[in-house]
Amino acid sequence: MMSSAVPGPVYLDYSATTPLRPEVREAMRPYLEDRFGNPSSIHGHGRDARSAVEDSRRQLISIFGAENARLVFTGSGSEADNLAVLGFARAHPDGCVVRSSIEHKAVVAATKALAAGGYDVREAPVDARGVLDLDALAARLPTDPRPTLVSVMWANNETGVVQPIEGIAALCAERGAVIHSDAVQAFGKLPLAPRKLGVSLVAVSAHKLAGPKGVGALLIDGEVELEPLVYGGGQESGLRSGTHDVAGIVGLVAAARIAAEEQEREARRLAGLRDRLESTLVSAVPDLVVNGGDAPERLPNVLNVSLPGVDIEGLLTSLDLEGIRVSSGSACTTGSVEPSHVMRAMGREGDLARNTIRMSLGWGTNESDIEYVLERFPKIVERVRAFA
């Protein structure tokens, strides 16, 4: 393999966050400068800002293919998840929430808080591939007709494994349950059709698809009753009070629009780069295990591997020193040497659970980046193992 020098660090942590696309920055710029009004103000500046928010709302609903649905802008994907889960529980105090064992910590923490207060919370397991077990989910759904929310992420943030949303939706329709899906990682990377599948609540975030940090959204399709988490001026139809981040909202929609236009082409490109990265590392690094590699479908940009016999912190540091930016598990668990709950849910133990690395590609990743990683990664692993 030829030596592949790159001009700067190779960033392979797009599942944690993404660089802002120049087109998105330009779309936001007017609302950071001259068009700075508060959408709640009745004068011209306010009306201009309010028009931008409502136009953005219509565009995002259209991208979802869910005309006339409701859409609430939030401060993050985590807030959108919390609004779905806690908002449902507050509106249905006699209800039940069933979540998968691999949900994002926003959902895990929210359901733990509900359970601590006596709410009926149940957990459905995944198999060794990281795929939700539909029979186990069916067994955990209440047999009585009480309001039930099923929370299953569209694609996992650590492994990239895509969940069987169509089968889950069919089961929930049969049992009268409402579906919430954290689509933060899937949005912009997969062709989502929540209305067609019957998914009523969908959470997304801007900074995972080349938009700004600090803005997300929750699609609410159908007659789903939620209670707000934030009270105040009654913005967002009373479901999320607080002054709108107009520039952020415009940036979210600009990024979503670009992602939708490029989705099919970019998915093929990233899958090709990811597959080359995966196949070469499997051949070059002894004992490397691909987590979720045998699942029916993964996001095209994510590779999660376990490396037995490696000091994971030493490996991450060594990679960083050589300009390779990756993460251990998900961004929300980085900094901890404990295995992630996702790896444990998949039955991983010991080194296979603890020594995991996620490499995630994005719009700025190119062939030179992959060549650089393939040249250096095996040597770095060998060196770190020798010191272990």
UniProtKB/TrEMBL annotation:
<dbReference type="InterPro" id="IPR015421">
    <property type="entry name" value="PyrdxlP-dep_Trfase_major"/>
</dbReference>
<protein>
    <submittedName>
        <fullName>Cysteine desulfurase</fullName>
    </submittedName>
</protein>
<keyword id="KW-0408">Iron</keyword>
<comment type="similarity">
    <text>Belongs to the class-V pyridoxal-phosphate-dependent aminotransferase family. NifS/IscS subfamily.</text>
</comment>
<keyword id="KW-0663">Pyridoxal phosphate</keyword>
<feature type="domain" description="Aminotransferase class V">
    <location>
        <begin position="10"/>
        <end position="373"/>
    </location>
</feature>
<keyword id="KW-0411">Iron-sulfur</keyword>
<dbReference type="InterPro" id="IPR016454">
    <property type="entry name" value="Cysteine_dSase"/>
</dbReference>
<keyword id="KW-0479">Metal-binding</keyword>
<dbReference type="InterPro" id="IPR015424">
    <property type="entry name" value="PyrdxlP-dep_Trfase"/>
</dbReference>
<dbReference type="InterPro" id="IPR015422">
    <property type="entry name" value="PyrdxlP-dep_Trfase_small"/>
</dbReference>
<dbReference type="GO" id="GO:0031071">
    <property type="term" value="F:cysteine desulfurase activity"/>
</dbReference>
<dbReference type="GO" id="GO:0051536">
    <property type="term" value="F:iron-sulfur cluster binding"/>
</dbReference>
<dbReference type="Pfam" id="PF00266">
    <property type="entry name" value="Aminotran_5"/>
</dbReference>
<keyword id="KW-0808">Transferase</keyword>
<dbReference type="GO" id="GO:0046872">
    <property type="term" value="F:metal ion binding"/>
</dbReference>
<dbReference type="InterPro" id="IPR000192">
    <property type="entry name" value="Aminotrans_V_dom"/>
</dbReference>
